[in-house]
Design brief:
The protein has a domain of 47 residues. The protein contains four helices and no strands. The protein starts with 10 loop residues before the first helix and ends in a 15-residue tail after the last helix. By secondary structure, the chain is mainly α.
Length: 74
Amino acid sequence: MRVTNTPRRTPAENAAAKAFVLAAQATVIKWYLHDHASVAQLARAYKVNPDWLPDTLELWDVALRDRSPPGGSE
């Protein structure tokens, strides 16, 4: 069981964070494509669920990077 001292965010706070990402579309795409920020890094920076962000990037026609480690498994 994960124990945290951080209170859960309200639905209004989550909606506001998502709205901020949608308003910052150009910046989010730039960070992901050109500055090589990971989905996890972006989700933390914008305080959104990391499961929501990849779907949003795909809606914006952004090709998601492969998540496997370099070199693969041999």
